[in-house]
Every structure is written in C-alpha cells, then in structure tokens.
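Please decode residue identities from the backbone states below.
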C-alpha cells in the first residue's frame, strides 16, 4: 500500500505539507485540495520510465481526468501534450497554452459542427469510425491532411465494466480486422494517415493486459504499414495506468512497466521494419489521481439499522463510488492516528439511497464536527461533479510549498440557474 498518508503532531492529516484541518477552517467544506508537487512528481516518474528506453516519447495527459485550469497550466509547464475527447477539452487546452501540435483529439460520435471546430483549431484528429472519416473528407481538403485512427485491438481491461474500452463489447475504435481497409480508404481519399492509436481501458494495475494490447497494436500497425504502405509518425497506446485506491492494492511498478512496454515497442518496430516513430501514451488517472483529497465535515451521526456518518457533500461532488462502486479510502482527518474502533457507513447529503462513500468502514469514534479526508480524488472527481439536488460545486485549492491558493471558487445559488429562462407568459 502506498496511500501516502502524512500525519502531523496534532494528529491531523496533511497534504503537501499543509494541515487539512487548518484548510477547512480557512476555506470551509466541502473542499477539494490538490498537491502541486505530487502532479509534477507523477508526471516526471512516467516520463522518465519511458524516455530512458525510448527518447522519442511523449505524454498526452488525458485531461478529462481533471481540467482545472491551474492543473492544465502545471502540465503545460512540464511539457505535456493533451489527449482531448471533446471540443470543450480542445478549447480549454488551447486557452491554457497548449499549441495545436500538442493536442490530439480522440472523439467518438462526433457531429459535423464539432468536427468543423476541431479542424479550424488545427488540432490533430484521431478518427474513431469510418463515418467520421467520410464526414471529414467532405469538410476539408484531404490532400496532405494528417490523421490517425483509433483501433479496437480486441483487448479490454479496467477496474469496472463501464471503463473497459477495448474488446467485443466496446463502442470505441475501428475493428482490428478492418484496420488495413480503413487506412487504404483514407489514402484513397487523399488523407495522410500518420498515426495509430488504441486505449483499452482505465484503472489497470496489472501490466499484462496492457502488454497484450501493446503487442496486438504493434502487430496491427506492422500489417497496416506494409499492406497499406503507411509510414507511421506516431504510435499511441492510450492511457489506463492505474493507481491503488484500496490499502491492499499494489502500485503499478512504473519503471518496469516503462521498460517492458518500450521493449515490446522496439522489438516490433524492428520485426516489421517500421523505422522510429514517436511513442505516445495518454495517462490521466496516473498523473492526477492521487494528488487530491476531498475534505468534508461530519454533520450528522445516525444510529439507524446501520450506523451512518452523514457528511456535507454527496455523489454530486464525488460520483465514482455511486457510478462505479469505486473504493476511496477515508480517514478522520482530525483523529488520524486514533485507534479504529467501529464499522460505519459514510453517507452523502444527496437524496438518493445510492449516495454512499463507503460501507462498513473501520474508523476511530467519529463525532459530529469531525473532518473526513476522502483520498485519491484528483481524477474523475471534480471533472464528474454536478449540481444535482441544486447543490453548488465546491471550492478547490492548490497547495505549493505549504501555501494554499484558491484555484476554483465555490459556486453560488445564482450560478446554478444562470442559463435558465422563464418564458414571458410564465413570469410572475
Ligand atoms: C480516458 C482516456 C484516457 C485516460 O484514461 P486513464 O485511465 O485516466 O489513464 C486516455 N485516452 C483516451 C482516448 C481516453 O478516453
């Protein structure tokens, strides 16, 4: 286990050298707290693990994990590129300083308007379907237009069935046995297909499925290269690198992982005589998953048929437990080292019975007014937050060298209803 728990002499949990209880006193709860140093370290750890073995390597941060502008700026400074899955993500990447050549758009079920916008930005388009290829062909002058394709290599993996994005049940990508055909079609239309891409799923801690997908994609790339006569500029293996959420889970040994994946990559390049294309991966969760805590205050203790610890946020603030039955480790932040004595359920404040952050959690004796730290809330946490139950989304602060700065203000009630319109005839 590497949940990176830091506890100070006051028995309080710290993040980035800052006392979480002091943060709640200053900013209130619920509060997302992000540790900048950890983002930088995570990025460098992956980067080094791969570049050591293959220097022409790039990280495309999958920004759907967290599009906070400050976090985007940190990644821009680090030299990251961006995996964008929607026009909005392309927009915010450009706004936060990523040049178009550092952004790859991988959409699915993309409309003509969206495609037009992406084309105008000059961002590279990674095509998900033949339909999308044909739409693009009608919209642009294909001659010399560089594209890539997302391939479904029949390998899928992930922490929950909703996040498996390869294999026979997946809606993503082009079937592997149609890859050659699609590249030939693209060339016949005049396009310049320069890349091949896959993304098999998310939350992968076991390197085996990823290795299998790497092997498979390289075989597909090799066949495409020779049969459709393509000279690949890049091969993109997608994201999916997992982090441990539960104390029993092991970390992904990233140095070995980088070594093994680049070894497969290089040997397949050799085998098929594919030259030296750039190697890309698209981690989201691995870069930002463990950089944040969600701090929430206990406001109600209820001894019902079970013992419920009621807190001041719900699945509108953190959806993963309700959506994927995900585990997030929870600590009583102001009683960090106290002996765990009771099993409790942690309940949110949304009016739905599925709104629970954890069942049967062994915690020290919790009282109203205590602060809970919900761990590993950097990825797919704020970016999936909603205003359901008409609750404003919370504040977010960034910690650097023990100092905290607000990187997102909490919403007001007015914010919730800003874009709604009452027709004249219904006005009061
Ligand atoms: C979501 C996504 C990723 C990132 O997945 P992680 O599990 O966060 O690493 C990468 N590539 C594409 C195309 C995605 O949709």
């Amino acid at each position: 286990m590497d949940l990176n728990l830091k506890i100070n002499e006051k028995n309080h949990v710290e993040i980035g050298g800052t006392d979480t209880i002091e943060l709640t006193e200053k900013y209130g709860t619920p509060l997302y707290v992000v540790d900048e140093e950890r983002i930088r370290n995570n990025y460098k750890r992956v980067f080094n693990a791969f570049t050591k073995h293959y220097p022409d390597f790039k990280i495309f941060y999958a920004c759907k994990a967290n599009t906070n502008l400050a976090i985007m700026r940190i990644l821009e400074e680090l030299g990251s590129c961006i995996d964008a899955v929607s026009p909005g993500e392309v927009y915010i990447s450009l706004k936060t300083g990523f040049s178009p050549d550092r952004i790859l758009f991988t959409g699915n079920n993309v409309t003509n308007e969206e495609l037009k916008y992406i084309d105008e930005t000059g961002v590279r388009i990674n095509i998900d379907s033949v339909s999308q290829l044909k739409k693009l062909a009608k919209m642009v002058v294909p001659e010399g237009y560089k594209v890539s394709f997302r391939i479904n290599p029949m390998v899928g993996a992930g922490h929950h069935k909703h996040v498996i994005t390869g294999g026979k049940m997946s809606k993503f990508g082009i079937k592997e046995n149609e890859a050659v055909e699609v590249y030939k079609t693209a060339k016949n239309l005049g396009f310049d297909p320069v890349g091949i891409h896959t993304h098999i799923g998310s939350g992968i801690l076991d390197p085996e499925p990823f290795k299998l997908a790497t092997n498979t994609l390289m075989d597909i790339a090799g066949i495409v290269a020779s049969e459709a006569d393509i000279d690949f500029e890049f091969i993109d293996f997608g994201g999916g690198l997992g982090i441990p959420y539960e104390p029993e889970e092991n970390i992904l040994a990233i140095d070995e992982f980088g070594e093994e994946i680049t070894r497969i990559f290089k040997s397949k390049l050799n085998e098929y005589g594919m030259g030296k294309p750039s190697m890309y991966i698209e981690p989201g969760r691995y870069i930002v998953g463990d950089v944040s805590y969600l701090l929430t205050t206990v406001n109600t203790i209820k001894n019902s048929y079970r013992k419920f610890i009621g807190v001041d946020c719900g699945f509108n603030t953190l959806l993963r437990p309700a959506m994927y039955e995900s585990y997030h480790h929870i600590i009583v932040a102001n009683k960090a080292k106290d002996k765990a004595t009771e099993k409790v359920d942690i309940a949110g404040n949304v009016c739905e019975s599925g709104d629970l952050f954890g069942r049967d959690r062994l915690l020290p004796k919790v009282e109203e007014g205590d602060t809970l730290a919900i761990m590993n809330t950097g990825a797919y946490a704020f970016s999936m937050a909603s205003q359901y139950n008409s609750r404003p989304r919370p504040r977010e602060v960034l910690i650097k060298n023990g100092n905290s700065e607000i990187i997102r203000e909490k919403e007001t009630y007015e914010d919730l209803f800003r874009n709604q319109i009452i027709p004249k005839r219904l006005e009061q």
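Observation: DSSP finds twelve helices and 21 strands in the chain.
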